Every structure is written in structure tokens, then in C-alpha cells.
């Protein structure tokens, strides 16, 4: 097990601060979706964080460690949880501005660059420790793919809801 | 070979999932898929990385087979079990839940036989407790998400 640090310092404060700000936005922004949708949109981010961190940072090659130790800690769980407000805000703003289909790639690009910026900050504060030649640039296409999937998911679910409404009207 | 076997079994699970009558909406099942994956991965990571009760093979093929098992198959099986536990049958649904539990334990055994993982500090009882815990957690989350729905319907 690799130990990077044993103190409660910048990486922990970065995660707690980010989570508090994110949760405050989720709670205090005007309600836009039904509760169930809000939960699922929040979980999209947490799931994506878990999915990629548990496929890229475990065997066969662990490309990065999270927080103070290579073992799983409670602070790691909080760091995955902090992806939740990101995905919620992604869906919230998307639904608010409803970009034209031709503008969707631009919307995804802006969010992916924001995510890369936040990851850069996380690396600087010691949340992520890259291993085996992994670079921040490699995360960029992952964000593009994940957020494209989120958009597809949003439209898919929106269509399901519309169909259910149409069936109920009939 | 291990990867092909696990992909084949996962595909069969997907076929079963697509064929069984669903008792939940699509969104409920998406929620369950997310939450079950997160719960199961967290438990596995603690058991694997922190306690070292389980060791996963570091070869690309075998660790990919393990990822297919953990990221796709187990969450899908748990959604199937949650759907079955919502059926109006009295005893049959529990019998089917037991079959699912035994299947998960058998898959765990298959992982060992194929050399995907080693279990130096593990026994059958721990597998029973772990997979029963997954099924119970999935059932509680089903209850939660269906309750959210009911509240929303009652609210207006």
C-alpha cells in the first residue's frame, strides 16, 4: 500500500469544500425536476466516478490513486460523491437552456473543459496521484464520452416520459 | 477464455433481464443499477484493497473478466432479484431469490476456478453473507425509489 500523506490537509478540505458548495447548489437552486429524476441525475455523476475510478485505478494497471493512501478510505467515497452535484448541474443547466442540437457538442466541450480544470485543481491539492504515465489530458476524452452519454440518457428518458404521457392521454 | 466465459454468462443474464416481466419503471431500474454498482464496488474494494481477503489476477484478460462481472453482471442480477421480489407470488419469489443467491455464489466459485481471483482469507459463509447483503440492499433501495414515486403522485 502506498501512503502519500497522513494529515488532514488540502486534499480533504478541497473535497469537503467542493461537496458543500455542490450540495448547497443542488438543495437551494429552484426545483426543476421531479424528486426521482433529481436523485437519478445526481447518481449519474457518482456512478460515473465510481465506474471509471474502479476500472482505471485497479488491476491490471492502476493509473492513479485517490487521496492519502492507495487503499479505499472514507474520504475517497466523499470524493466520488462530489461528482453528484456536477452531473446534477450539467442536467439542470442543459434543461434550463435547452441548446439547439447543433450546439450540444459545444455544451459538452464547455463542461468537459470545466471538468478537466477541476481535475487539475484536484491533482494540485493531492486528491489524485497519477501513476504509470497517466496524464490529465487522458481524462479529457473520458469526460467527452461520459457527458455525451449523459445527454443521450437525458433525451432517452425525456422520450420515455413523453411516450408515457401520450399513452396516458389516449 | 475467462473473459469469453464471463462475457457469455453476462450476455445470458442480459437476455434473462430483458425477458422477465418488470415491476419497476425504466428510471427506477437505472437508479438501482447505479446504486447497486456503487454499493457492490465499495464493499469489494474494501475487501480487496484494504483487507486483502481477495486477490484479483493482474493479467489483462482475467482482470477484464472480473470487471465485466462486477460492473455489469452483478448489478443486473440484483435488478432481476429486486423485480422478482416485487412479484405477487407468495413462496416462489423467495425460492427464486434463493436460486439467484446460489447462482452468485457459483459465479464467485467460477472466478476462483478460472484463476480470476484468489481468496486466501475467505470462506463460503462470507460469500453467503456478502451476496445476501447485496440482495437485501437492492430490495431496500427498490422500496426507497418506489416510495419516492408514490409520494410524488400523492403530492398534487
TrEMBL record, chain A:
> This chain belongs to which protein, by name?
Uncharacterized protein
| Transmembrane annotation, as ranges | 13-30, 39-57, 77-94, 106-130, 136-155
Q: Which UniProt keywords apply?
A: Membrane, Transmembrane, Transmembrane helix
**Species name for this entry?**
Cohnella pontilimi
Highest taxon above the source species:
Bacteria
| Keyword Transmembrane attributed | yes
Amino acid at each position: 500500500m502506498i501512503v502519500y500523506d497522513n494529515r488532514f490537509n488540502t486534499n480533504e478540505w478541497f473535497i469537503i469544500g467542493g461537496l458543500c458548495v455542490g450540495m448547497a447548489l443542488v438543495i437551494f437552486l429552484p426545483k426543476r425536476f421531479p424528486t426521482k429524476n433529481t436523485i437519478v441525475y445526481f447518481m449519474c455523476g457518482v456512478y460515473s466516478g465510481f465506474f471509471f475510478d474502479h476500472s482505471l485505478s485497479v488491476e491490471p494497471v492502476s493509473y492513479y490513486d485517490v487521496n492519502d493512501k492507495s487503499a479505499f478510505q472514507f474520504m475517497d467515497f466523499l470524493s466520488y460523491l462530489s461528482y453528484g452535484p456536477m452531473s446534477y448541474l450539467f442536467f439542470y443547466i442543459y434543461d434550463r437552456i435547452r441548446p439547439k442540437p447543433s450546439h450540444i457538442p459545444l455544451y459538452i466541450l464547455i463542461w468537459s473543459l470545466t471538468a478537466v480544470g477541476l481535475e487539475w485543481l484536484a491533482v494540485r491539492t493531492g486528491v489524485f496521484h497519477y501513476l504509470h504515465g497517466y496524464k490529465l489530458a487522458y481524462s479529457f476524452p473520458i469526460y467527452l464520452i461520459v457527458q455525451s452519454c449523459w445527454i443521450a440518457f437525458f433525451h432517452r428518458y425525456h422520450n420515455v416520459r413523453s411516450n408515457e404521457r401520450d399513452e396516458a392521454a389516449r | 477464455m475467462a473473459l469469453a466465459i464471463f462475457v457469455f454468462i453476462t450476455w445470458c443474464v442480459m437476455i434473462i433481464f430483458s425477458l422477465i416481466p418488470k415491476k419497476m419503471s425504466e428510471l427506477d431500474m437505472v437508479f438501482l443499477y447505479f446504486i447497486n454498482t456503487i454499493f457492490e464496488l465499495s464493499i469489494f474494494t474494501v475487501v480487496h484493497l484494504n483487507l486483502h481477503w481477495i486477490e484479483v489476477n493482474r493479467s489483462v484478460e482475467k482482470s477484464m473478466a472480473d470487471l465485466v462481472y462486477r460492473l455489469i453482471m452483478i448489478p443486473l442480477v440484483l435488478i432481476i432479484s429486486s423485480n422478482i421480489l416485487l412479484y405477487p407470488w407468495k413462496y416462489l419469489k423467495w425460492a427464486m431469490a434463493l436460486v439467484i443467491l446460489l447462482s452468485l455464489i457459483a459465479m464467485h466459485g467460477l472466478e476462483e476456478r478460472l484463476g480470476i481471483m484468489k481468496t486466501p482469507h475467505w470462506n463460503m459463509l462470507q460469500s453467503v453473507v456478502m451476496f445476501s447483503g447485496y440482495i437485501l440492499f437492492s430490495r431496500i433501495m427498490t422500496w426507497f425509489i418506489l416510495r419516492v414515486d408514490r409520494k410524488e403522485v400523492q403530492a398534487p
